[in-house]
Amino acid sequence: MPEETRVFIRSCLFAVVVATVYWLLSQDAIGTVLLAGFGVASFSLFFMLRRGQPQGATGVATQPAGIGARIFDLIGTSERPGEDRPFGDEGGRIPVGSIAPFLIGVAVAMAALGLIFGLWSVAAAVIPLLLGVREWLREVGAEIRALSEDEERAARAHRA
């Protein structure tokens, strides 16, 4: 089972344990329901990812295993060779670091503070917002150009 699916079952188990301990220590229904909801959501994601895997696509002969081996398969970290991964496309370009998300976050925070301190903060938020959007769009354009150059290079190599 891929690590991408196991992380959700581990999150589910963690949330159930924490919800139980939280209920026993605090008797707070709201927090317990929220923690249990986190566990249910994690299990739902695990189930959806597990269901999306084709059966028998691992290329490894499955052996009947005991309950201990099955539990380790659920929460363990070893993967079988040739295993189908839900997020298996690890190729391609990796985006470079950028200050644009930080600038936009600062602008949003300044605009939110404008609700408390006055409209001058909202007006001041326009500057980092415009700088962040400009930087982000510049990087998107550079990424699109780089991808098209990679595709052209691959097409030339394929023709040769």
Number of individual domains: 2
Q: What's the alpha carbon Rg, rounded to whole Å? A: 24 Å
Which term fits the overall shape? flat
Q: What is the number of beta strands?
A: 0
Largest sheet: none
SS-derived structural category: mainly alpha
Instruction: Give the strand content.
Output: under 5%
The poorly predicted ranges are 57-61
Following the backbone from N to C, one meets helices and strands in this order, namely HHHHH
Helix content: over 70%
Question: Could you give the distance between the termini?
Answer: 40 Å
Instruction: Quote the average pLDDT.
Output: 80
- Helical segment count: 5
Compact overview of the structure:
The chain is an all-alpha fold and 160 residues long. The protein has helices at residues 3-26, 29-51, 67-75, 100-117, 119-159.
Describe this structure as you would to a colleague.
With 160 residues, the protein is mostly helical. It folds into 2 domains: 3-75, no CATH class; 100-159. It has helices at residues 3-26, 29-51, 67-75, 100-117, 119-159. Helix 1 (3-26) runs antiparallel to helix 2. The longest helix is centred in the last third of the chain and has 41 residues, at 119-159. The chain is flat, with a radius of gyration of 24 Å. 9% of the residues are buried. The model is unreliable at 57-61 (pLDDT under 50).
SSE map:
Elements: H1 3-26, H2 29-51, H3 67-75, H4 100-117, H5 119-159
Helix pairs in contact: 1-2, 4-5
Which terms would index this structure?
160 residues; mainly alpha; 2 domains
